[in-house]
Each structure stands twice: as structure tokens, then as C-alpha cells.
Specification:
The chain is an alpha/beta fold. It is built from 11 helices and 4 strands; from the N terminus they run ααααβαβββαααααα. Helix 10 packs across helix 11.
């Protein structure tokens, strides 16, 4: 028996050391948040616009921290600053109430132009996948469709956001199992009530008695991610139509999304226009200045 136990011990030690090493490698921002990034967030991220000034500072810090620690790589396409900030915002939104959260299980996000299949091919009759969390040799990676990424932030209240969906899968996976039970967010006493809600809502989906995306009815794993999209995109409607589910999601993510007014500020920002950051100053004297 000893010859079996010893390797297991070494594996556990190796995993513990690797976890500590990876935490030491996590970099924290040491430069001011770029003013141009602030304008981009204001114009494209409705969640950011719903925050108060102090919350915006925290959001900016977490976006900057994510981009320091996670590589975003285009695959046969081109991405710009807006795309990168959308990816980072998708990571931050679900865990915004957890300022110490680190995505240690993600090193790179691959961005394709459009949808892809399970073999990551875009020119295929099966290219219906918009986002995926990698496993096996793709462990530590996420794959996103740029088209789906941008669409998810173009409408602030359509119940859908592919990138947020995938980051919720990643959050679910961090406890060791992608099973629809995010144990790092959910206290043990709420696991059974959460499972009961899942089964009830999935039954309603299959009986055509629910406005939740039918994809959420395929498994508890997908239900968590689909419900998360709904919660962060259209909380008022979820609270109205699914009050029990809304309360559980609110407790899980520790955010009162029904209190947030999600809006996009997409107007062109001229130097003499009010600064998008909401300071009340002209853009040229605020985020658009050289200082």
C-alpha cells in the first residue's frame, strides 16, 4: 500500500507549492488607471455606469489587475482596447463584491472572430459555440467569439452576455468541479435550497413556463451560467418573474442588481463636452487632459 500512498503525497505537495507559486506571480497595478480606459468603460460598460465614484475606482483597479495577469490573444482576427476592456469587465462583474478574488485558473483568453466548433474551427457546419472554458490541454484558457463578446455589451438589458456566462463557468470550476454549485460563493447551508431552485426552474423551462434561455435547461452547470447572465443583465425582470431565484443569485454574488440603473453612454466625447466619468468638468480638463 505504501508505494501508492507516497506518490499521492508528493502530488498533493506539488499542487500546494504550485498554488502558492501562482499566487506570488499575481501582479497588482502600480500605475494610475489610464483616462482613455475610463472613457471606454463609460461608453461601453453599463455596469460601470451604475456604480458610485468609489465603486468605479474599485472596478477600474480590478479591470487593470485582470489585464496585468491574463493575456488576451486574437486568433485570426484583430482586437482593440474596447474588446480587451470588455473581456476584463466580464471577469470583474460577477466577482465585484469579492475584491480579493483572483482568477488563478486562467492565464489566457483566446478571441476568435466569430463562432467556432468543438475543434475550434470557424469554417464548419457545427460552429455554433460562442464561448468555452478550456479543459485538458486547453486548461487555463478561455475561448470567446468577438462577435458574441461585443453583442453582449451592446444591449444593457437583453438577458444575455456570453463572456459573463463563461466567467461564471470559470468561477464554478474553481472549487474543483464544474457542476452548477459555486461552493466558493455559496455557503453549505444554501446548497440544497439552490439545487431545489435549479430543478424547479429547469422543469419550468422544459414545460415552456419560463422566460429563461432554454439552454439553461440542459444541465445545472448551464443553468447557473444562464441565470447569471439574466441576473447581471436584467435583474428587475428576474426579480419580478423569478423572485426566489433572484434572491438566491443576489445572496450568491452579494450584489443588489435590482438597485442598479444599467445604461450606456455612447455619445461621442468632444474636448469641450462633459467628461464621461461624471465629474462635472469638461472632458479636456478631466479624463481627456494630459495630467
Amino acid at each position: 500500500m505504501e508505494y501508492i500512498i507516497v506518490p499521492v503525497v508528493f502530488i498533493l505537495i506539488y499542487l500546494a507549492i504550485r498554488a502558492v507559486w501562482r499566487k506570488k506571480k499575481w501582479h497588482e497595478p502600480n500605475t494610475p488607471f489610464p483616462s482613455s480606459w475610463r472613457v471606454e468603460l463609460t461608453q461601453h460598460i453599463a455596469f460601470y455606469n451604475s456604480l458610485n465614484p468609489e465603486e468605479k475606482k474599485l472596478f477600474e483597479y480590478e479591470v487593470q489587475e485582470f489585464l496585468l495577469n491574463c493575456k488576451i490573444t486574437p486568433v485570426e482576427t484583430e482586437i482593440n482596447l474596447t474588446d480587451k476592456l470588455m473581456v476584463a469587465s466580464s471577469a470583474v462583474i460577477p466577482i465585484f463584491a469579492f475584491p480579493d478574488w483572483k482568477y488563478y485558473n486562467l492565464q489566457e483568453v483566446l478571441v476568435y472572430e466569430g463562432n467556432f466548433d468543438e475543434g475550434f474551427q470557424t469554417e464548419s457546419t457545427e460552429n455554433h459555440i460562442m464561448g468555452m472554458v478550456g479543459t485538458g490541454y486547453m486548461e487555463g484558457k478561455m475561448i470567446l467569439s468577438k462577435t458574441a463578446l461585443e453583442k453582449g455589451f451592446s444591449n444593457a438589458s437583453d438577458k444575455g452576455n456570453t463572456a459573463i456566462h463563461e466567467f461564471i463557468h470559470l468561477i464554478d470550476k474553481m472549487d474543483g468541479a464544474t457542476d452548477g454549485i459555486p461552493e466558493l460563493l455559496l455557503d453549505k447551508q444554501y446548497i440544497i435550497p439552490w439545487l431545489n431552485i435549479i430543478h424547479k426552474e429547469i422543469d419550468n423551462i422544459w414545460e415552456n413556463k419560463s422566460d429563461i434561455n432554454p439552454y439553461g435547461g440542459t444541465s445545472p452547470t448551464e443553468f447557473l451560467a444562464v441565470a447569471g447572465e439574466y441576473f447581471f443583465e436584467k435583474a428587475h425582470l428576474m426579480e419580478e418573474k423569478h423572485p426566489e431565484l433572484y434572491k438566491m443569485m443576489e445572496m450568491m454574488f452579494r450584489q443588489k442588481m435590482d438597485k442598479r440603473k444599467l445604461q450606456l453612454k455612447s455619445a461621442d466625447v468632444g474636448r469641450n463636452a462633459p467628461c464621461p466619468c461624471g465629474s462635472g468638468k469638461k472632458y479636456k480638463y478631466c479624463c481627456g487632459g494630459n495630467g
